[in-house]
Amino acid sequence: MTTLALEVKANPGGFGAEVTGVDLSRPLPPPVLDAVKAAFARHAVLWFPDQPLTHDQLEAFTLQWGEYGWDPYVAPLADRPHILEVRRDASETTTVFGGFWHSDWSFQATPPAITILHAKVIPPVGGDTLYADGCRAWEALSPAFQAMIAPLRAVHSAGRPYGSAGFYAKEAGRTGMKILPSAEAEKTYVHPLVRIHPATGRKALFVNPVYTLSVDGFSEAESAALLGFLFKHMTEDRFVFRHAWAANMLTMWDNRCCMHNATGGYDGHTRILHRTTVAGDAPRAAADAA
Ligand code: SIN
Q: Are the C-beta atoms of residues 39 and 9 closer than 8 Å to each other?
């Protein structure tokens, strides 16, 4: 039997790391799982190259991290209620799914802690995913600005993409993905604008341009000014890395402290990945922990 040696190779700066020396097709032995969990807490985005997985194996890997999250507005694979297919066929010219900065399902009362994405078909060009570190973005703000925004709360909703007139609804039937727009998507949820990560205790900015509509209690102009500043700040190059995919790579990211953005640039080629989520907690305010 071959013994694999876990290796974690972090990006400069520590946000994002490649993990090799593990076989995700089988349950990870407890000490290995603990080491991978420690790497995830440290780096927030992990990718594991060369991990061919069946649906059963992807589900079993997901459940080593917690219960499944709730994935609305996109039909799952037939007979696999917890696996979404992120798919864009070679003939499509529609909006790239996830092609704007966001944190997955931040409009939910308890947004998913983790998203896991397993690559099946990767185009020869384009299709990278960008990740932005919400902890370092918070830490780079001045103490005075931090004190001003820490007590604030932000209003989130799925309406922009998934409402009856949302941007995906306009393309329904023209994409390989089964988007399920709904009036329900207009419902709003209020979350702390700065949240404490339950595992690491680090603070992170928790707003994103897709699902965050406004700052609770602010006028439209005030919200636009503050959120506009934060979105620009959070996506500065110093907090972002570009992740290139390969078939059979599994990538997982922490929605509690980072945003992501799927890029295009592969029209004429097919891109297919399978996605699961792991349930999370109700975001806890940084101000409550002070
Ligand atoms: C997503 O937002 O879940 C999709 C990310 C990607 O396709 O790279």
A: no
- Asked if residues 21 and 7 have their Cβ atoms less than 8 Å apart, the reply is yes
Query: Ligand 1, atom 5: nearest CA belongs to which residue?
Result: 262
Question: Could you identify the residue written with the tokens 């384009």?
Answer: 126
Give the Å distances, CA to CA, from 56 to 89, 212, 247.
24, 34, 18
Span from the CA of 115 to the centroid of ligand 1 (angstroms) = 9
CA of 286 to the centre of ligand 1 (A): 28
Q: Which two structure tokens, joined as six digits, stand for 254?
A: 């922490």
- Is the pTM higher than 0.90? yes
Task: Tell me the per-residue pLDDT of 122-181, one tens digit each, with 9 for 90 and over.
Answer: 999 999 999 999 999 999 999 999 999 999 999 999 999 999 888 888 887 788 888 999
pLDDT cut 70: percent of the chain above it: 98
Q: Which of 104, 133, 156, 243 is catalytic?
A: 104
Q: Which amino acid residue places its CA nearest to atom 6 of ligand 1?
A: 262
Query: Helix (H, G, I), strand (E, B), or coil: what is residue 250?
Result: strand
Both tokens of 212, joined, read 């965050």
Is 156 one of the catalytic residues?
no
Which residue is associated with the tokens 């603990």?
34
How far from the centroid of its chain's Cα atoms is residue 160's Cα?
Answer: 17
- At the topology level, CATH places domain 3-289 in Double-stranded beta-helix (3.60.130)
The answer to whether the CB of 36 falls within 8 A of the CB of 243 is: no
Residue 165: what pLDDT? 87
Residue 144: C-alpha distances to residues 136, 148, 195, 245 (Å): 16, 6, 17, 40
